[in-house]
Predict the structure.
Amino acid sequence: MRHRMKLEKAREKIANADRQMAKLFEERMEAVKAVADYKKEHGLPVEDKAQETKKISEIGSLIGDPELRPYYASFLQSTMEISKRLQQERLRRQAPGKEQENAVLRMELGPDSYDIVLERGCLHRAGELLDLNRKVMIVTGELVPRKYAETVAGQCTEPFLHIIPSGEESKSFAVLEDILVTMLNAGFTRSDCVCAVGGGVVGDLAGFAAACYMRGIDFYNVPTTVLSQVDSSIGGKTAVNLRGVKNMAGAFWQPKKVLIDPDTLSTLPPRHITNGLAEALKAGLIADEKLFSLFETEDAATDTEKVIEAALRVKKKVVEADERENGLRKILNFGHTIGHGIESVTGMLHGESVALGMIPMCSDEVRARLIPVLEKLGLPLSVRADPDTVFAAVMHDKKMSAGKITVVKVPVPGSYKMESVLPEDLKDLIKMVVHV
Ligand code: MG
């Protein structure tokens, strides 16, 4: 009985503290609103690393009980995250009329959550949207119009520009080392950051550099191709290739923010537009019937923003449910089993290869609807290559379990099912799109 009394007493104390904290919370958030208003007025960024670091370092003197200090540190950290969210929400609401054309999607991954800003011209607001008030290693590709990286650099206090050769070969330890050494020589510390400006290769490599340098520093991604805008820039997969095996060494390292500026697509060759749209089409097929029918009824190649946003929403949901690809995230590999084989054998672009890889993985009804969409986009329906060579390439990087390979199939647009197929059946599927 006395124990119960003790428990009740302690609980009442907690309730009391909670009531006080609720009041303090409200007080704090009122002040945060005032800060947001001030920042809005003066065009200051929401992120303020220096202020955060200062606060965290003050903890020692605030909390007497050393046992509690780390708990308080994480409490304060999440309070600051919430404050930033409120500021961002507030800034968004204060920009009326912009809402329709701009979208800010929030990738909810607990402490690794981040905003994906989809907005025409946001490249020019990088200084306001990102914390560039520190050393920034901007990584860009040789073929990416230089003006994009320079636009970002122009908004940094201490920019460093690293241009990598175009193509998959740049996802190597040699190029990674180059970037890391440049950062080392420039005296980058843990509070500095890396910013990718370019396509998927740039993002994967720069992201991995950020994940490695001093065991991980902040990373921003500014994708400038359709493929990277709809797919690779979000989700936190970073990697380099190892002995010709794609993405063999890497890390899950989420960006702190992603800026998607559809204006950058104006310099992209048409073939690369449709190449990227193939991944958006994939997203529609596995999870969003509406997005798929958008491809049927509208001109996806010109109405890219709508398509990008819908595809991002699909990817966001999948990544939120399964960040580390333990299950659900595998559905994003729809079309990729055969696609990767075709890509490595023929050298076709990634999206083009995935488009081909999707064809055999659909039900007859879905295929009958998919083919006209691919035709409309100008994506290939078949490729000349040796099916056996493609099969060998597929088997090379696919793990088997109980003599079967797991693939993703689409029975109805907007849905998926996982299926285990025998290698010989997979060969038949390949033959649907690969002919000598
Ligand atoms: Mg892909």
Observations:
- The longest helix spans residues 2-42.
- Residues 231, 279, 336, 350, 354 surround magnesium ion (CB under 6 Å).
- The two ends are 84 Å apart (CA to CA).
